[in-house]
Amino acid sequence: MLTPDQRKRLEKQHYRMVGSHSAVKTCGWTKNMIKGQGGCYKLRFYGIQSNQCMQMTTSMSCANRCTFCWRDLKAPVSKDWKWDVDKPDFILEKSLEAHHKLLEGYKGHSKVTPQSYQLSKTIKHVALSLTGEPITYPRMNELLDLFHQQGISTFIVTNAQFPEAIKILKPITQLYLSLDAPTKDLLKQIDVPLFADYWERLNTSLNYLKEKQQRTCIRLTMVKGMNMETLPEYAKMIMQGFPDFIEVKAYMPIAASRERLGRAYAPLHEEIVKFSQQLVQHLPDYELVSEHISSRVVMLAKKKFKKADGWHTWIDFPKFQQLALAGKPFTTDDYLKKTPTSLVGISGKGTLDREDPRYRHKKKNENKKE
Questions:
Q1: Per-residue buried b or exposed e for 82-91, using 16+ beta carbons within 10 Å of the residue's own CB
Q2: Domain ranges of the chain
Q3: Is a pLDDT exceeding 80 seen at residue 370?
Q4: Strands 216-222, 174-178: parallel, antiparallel or unpaired by DSSP?
Q5: N or C: which end of the chain has fewer CB within 10 A?
Q6: How far, in Å, CA of 292 to CA of 29, rounded?
Q7: Listing from the earlier edge strand, what are the strands of the sheet with 297-302?
Q8: Which DSSP letter does residue 351 get?
Q9: How many Å apart are CA 253 and CA 103, to the nearest integer?
Q10: For the segment 305-363, what is each residue's pLDDT rounded down to a tens digit?
């Protein structure tokens, strides 16, 4: 799947290749939590412990060349699986091994919290969202079974170009579908798809998403000046998939995406909040629930998750593992957990604080003048 030069370049970027088509890379939030600097938005929204989460993919290839993606133009793209198929048990074993090796250097780090580092040695969650389109791996369901047998929750992100893979996917902890634009022409401009029937594939994927009985989420990646309009059209597409949750997240200018877009296209958090507040007016079944300012993301949830004692957007992971392994039908409602009250609500704060590079630069200059 990858040339020797591509592998070498990815290794320099701290990827670790696993077999012929998979890869692991430690998430920045995993490192942050080990150092006692807080977890990612999935901790706030769903209760994932970031220091126990492995970020990986089962395919380095994708069927899109999204303008906002950090992948460069040399990254592999394909509409079909053309490579060898590594065994699921090999992928699991070698991915865990690679992840642990990437974290070994943190053991003696001066800022590391010993307890948090110790916990990081036990992986409890896997985010299949690193790069490429992981859902195309032909033996994905077998790999999911192995993760669940190991007590590891499963989160998969798909770009909605492989609807049949979505249809046959076994129950996972949470399935994400990327909705990058609400119209055919705009989707082509932003995602640059390889498939000629990309729009039909997206719509079929939304239909299959709606049929899923376990947790689902639609993610909107907002690019300023490109896809932050046409709110009724977004609402129509969202209702077609009718996910349990919606994440509205800002495009972040990182890696190769800076060559295509850059900082001017990155919305501030307050702009994401405003967009979300306008969007929810078109979605009577949903409410704004929480935010993660550093990640510039807002989470909406179906109103049914708001119980008498508060919101229940967190995940009862042991219960999910029990249900997944039992082999009997179950639904999202069967593994809900109460969200801590302190993590609910939109603060009104924006990114004009220490998280915003422009503000840091401004403060630095002001301090010099003083």
A1: ebeebebeeb
A2: 4-369
A3: no
A4: parallel
A5: C
A6: 12
A7: 16-18, 22-24, 53-57, 125-128, 153-158, 174-178, 216-222, 245-250, 297-302, 286-292
A8: S
A9: 25
A10: 999 999 999 999 999 999 999 999 999 999 999 999 999 999 877 765 444 444 343 43
